[in-house]
Design a protein that fits this description.
heterodimer, A: 294 residues, mainly alpha, MetI-like fold, globular, B: alpha/beta, D-Maltodextrin-Binding Protein, domain 2, 7-stranded mixed sheet, two-stranded parallel ribbon, 9 strands, transport (chain A), transmembrane helix (chain A), transmembrane (chain A), MetI-like_sf (chain A)
């Protein structure tokens, strides 16, 4: 990003009060539930239901809650976090790689059926992934892959046609044909050109897609719910829903699960925040400027 | 985009090739006429692994007792989800023809949803036919098919009663209302005396509560539905009486209308905003852990009655264990479902340790169960109250084969109208139309009451 020259004061765009209020309202709308989550994580079951929801109770119970969350059910929560991490990272890496290869191919190669296949991808975007969960289950059940990590990773890698679409659009504009030609003139093969030259220009798109897939797989509930039976394989979403179910059921000790669900939810969003902070620095455009004369 | 491909192809959508899945799916078991004791003994000595999907906390205890009694059978318990997620998971696996459990937790209201798709095994030939006498009459009716089939074994129930704040009642000189009429008067008196307090809360999106209220009110909207014929009559006089009653109270503003089991509701219950909670037999223990700050102030009583002197209750909640007919081990699965729900040690642990309200006569008469005094209820024998209520639940209440849809349609029609104090009769009609439309769309022949 380059700094724009400072313009004279009077030309500065007028601030819109309405817009500012609107944005503040939107920010509050999105941040308030998060704030509630932070506040609720510091409370005991009793305080949760007897004190005002959006402010802290007298005593801070956060660390006890975190401790309990990680020790309940023999440390199941830590395992769920690990599983979620495995599924999300593996799906994001694999899925982004596939999307980058495919999108680049669609954008830069001329072959029969390019357009038709791309239309197929566009069509696939219109089908919500939840609707595909059951057919996917049937396929994986035939292949004997249900109740294994593959049942989550493989569909998650391939179930985001948006990634491919986005890559194609991005590669189309970010990778100049001249760059590929100059690579060919220098005698590099197609894969070498992709991995060493043009692929790097796609970094901002790759970071975007990776983040997108990371979040989507991390938050996916329905697919792991129907695919997995073994609690040792559950991701955090299914695990927490399971605790939530126990908290809501009529069992005697059920109330004890409520703070665990709340605290667990809070902990489970931290990896995503870290991923955002880490990947956003790759969101810089303009890498290509100056590489060729146009 | 390269010019070469401009306008070459029309839109060629990705053609999905249909897969033939049926080939290696498991075929359902044809239930035999009778299974001899020798066959059962033989099967129970064959090393087998059963899959059991349930959400009941601590069920491992009953499973361990079963494995102790039948050391050759191993039971694998899967607890993935509750309610909608649980059923979605089961339906998917049943559709795939593999991966489904042998035995699963099924709520009473969902039993018809699995019999209509022909997925439940009739347990009669496996000895379940002889269990009828052990269970309360209305509970057994809930798991019985039209031709006497036994579709599942009852595990717990939720006969409905009223939990009330004795301290609030005393402070305002309110008697425990025996009739709905007295209840309405008390609601007016109390709210007038203290505008912060409501006699009770009507939960607008809680279809299960309303079903229980219909049940108590003598409405049986889906009675006589069988197979492809769906009878629906949520506009009956009995149903109107219930809906009008609540709509009137809501319109007067003397009952609150907060969504139940929400943050707001829990807080209000702790704060003393509601003087009663119209709930089920699982309510007392639940309230104890979520409204701990009000300990000692609550008492339990039967629901108010529509006709003075009556003793009628409805049911809200509870579940069963059913066996799916794709199981490879029908005998073992059936014996398991029966054992954990009838073995004295198993059922006693459920009632006294897991706090599931029992469906068996033996436990409901067991002084050790009924005599339990709960501190939270000022030492009252709450189990005894609900055991007596259980005996008054009407056996006539049939669930539709798609109760989840009926529930989903309830909130936007009847629930929200009552909460707003609107025209209850019109809302019931609206609900009926939606149910009928959905049923026809699903291929049922609909016979509407009027």
């Amino acid at each position: 990003m380059s700094a724009t020259p400072v313009k004279p004061r009077k030309a500065r765009p007028k601030r819109s009060t309405i817009l500012t209020i609107g944005m503040l309202a939107a920010a509050a709308y999105f941040l308030l539930p998060l704030f509630w989550l932070v506040v609720a994580s510091t409370k005991t079951t009793g305080d949760l239901f007897s004190t005002f929801g959006l402010w802290f109770a007298g005593e801070n119970n956060l660390f006890t809650n975190i401790g309990n969350t990680f020790t309940a059910d023999d440390g199941a929560f830590g395992q769920w976090l690990g599983n979620s991490l495995l599924y999300a990272v593996a799906s994001a890496l694999g899925g982004t790689f596939l999307a980058a290869l495919g999108g680049y191919g669609f954008a830069k190669y001329r072959f029969k059926g390019n357009r038709a296949m791309f239309m197929g991808v566009l069509g696939a975007m219109a089908v919500p992934s939840t609707a595909l969960a059951i057919p996917t289950y049937l396929l994986f059940s035939q292949a004997g892959l249900t109740d294994t990590p593959w049942a989550i990773i493989l569909p998650s890698m391939a179930s985001h046609p948006f990634g491919l679409y986005f890559m194609r659009i991005y590669a189309d504009s970010a990778v100049p044909d001249e760059l590929i030609e100059s690579g060919r003139i220098d005698g590099a093969g197609d894969f070498r050109i992709f991995f060493q030259v043009t692929g790097r220009l796609l970094t901002p798109a790759i970071a975007t897609i990776m983040l997108f897939m990371l979040v989507q797989t991390w938050n996916n509930y329905f697919l792991p719910l129907i695919m997995l039976n073994d609690p040792a394989l559950y991701p955090v979403t299914v695990g927490l829903a399971n605790w939530q179910g126990q908290a809501a059921s009529s069992g005697g000790a059920s109330g004890d699960y409520i703070p665990l669900v709340v605290t667990g939810s809070l902990i489970s969003i931290f990896p995503l925040i870290v991923a955002f902070l880490f990947l956003q620095r790759y969101w810089t455009t303009g890498l290509v400027s100056g590489s060729v004369k146009q | 985009m390269t010019p070469r491909f401009r306008r070459r192809t029309g839109l060629a959508a990705a053609a999905a090739s249909p897969f033939a899945f049926a080939a290696c799916a498991r075929q359902p078991v044809e239930p035999p006429e009778h299974v001899s004791q020798a066959q059962i003994d033989d099967a129970m000595r064959t090393p087998t692994e059963l899959n059991f999907w349930t959400w009941v906390p601590g069920i491992e205890k009953q499973v361990a007792l079963f494995e102790e009694a039948y050391p050759d059978i191993k039971v694998k318990v899967t607890n993935a989800a509750q309610g909608a997620g649980h059923y979605a998971k089961i339906r998917t696996a049943l559709r795939a023809g593999r991966g489904a459990p042998d035995v699963a937790q099924i709520e009473y209201e969902m039993v018809p949803a699995f019999t209509i798709t022909d997925h439940l095994l009739d347990l009669r030939p496996y000895g379940a036919g002889e269990l009828e006498d052990q269970f309360v009459e209305w509970v057994w009716a809930q798991v019985s098919g039209a031709n006497g089939e036994v579709w599942a074994i009852p595990q717990d129930t939720g006969p409905m009663g009223m939990l009330y704040r004795a301290d609030i009642f005393d402070a305002h000189g309110i008697e425990v209302p025996a009739t709905w009429e007295a209840f309405a008067d008390a609601a007016r008196t109390l709210h007038e005396a203290d505008p912060e307090v409501y006699l009770t809360n009507f939960p607008p999106s809680q279809g299960a509560f309303f079903s229980g209220a219909l049940w108590q009110g003598g409405a049986d909207p889906f009675a006589g539905s069988e197979g492809p014929v769906l009878k629906v009559d949520v506009v009956s006089e009995a149903a109107q009486r219930v809906a009008d009653y609540w709509s009137t109270l809501a319109a007067e503003g003397v009952v609150s209308t907060d969504p139940d089991f929400s943050d707001q509701w829990y807080q209000a219950a702790n704060r003393g905003k509601y003087a009663t909670w119209l709930t089920a037999a699982w309510g007392p223990v639940f309230l104890q852990s979520t409204a701990a700050s009000t300990s000692g102030k609550w008492r339990a009583a039967p629901l108010p009655q529509w006709e003075s002197g009556d003793e009628v209750a409805g049911n809200w909640g509870g579940s069963t264990n059913g066996v799916f007919n794709i199981t490879e081990h029908p005998i073992q699965a059936a014996v398991f479902a029966q054992f954990i729900n009838t073995d004295p040690e198993c059922t006693k642990a459920m009632a006294t340790e897991q706090f599931l309200f029992p469906p068996t006569k033996a436990l409901l008469e067991d002084p050790e169960f009924t005599g339990l005094e709960l501190e939270f209820y000022g030492g009252q024998k709450v189990n005894e109250v609900f055991a007596q209520i259980s005996a008054t639940v009407s056996p006539d209440f049939q669930w539709p084969p798609f109760n989840d849809q009926v529930r989903a349609d309830y909130g936007p029609t009847v629930g929200s109208t009552i909460a707003a104090g609107g025209d209850a009769a019109a809302a019931l009609g609206d609900w009926q139309d939606r149910i009928a439309e959905y049923a026809e769309f699903q291929g049922f022949t609909v016979e509407e009451g009027s």
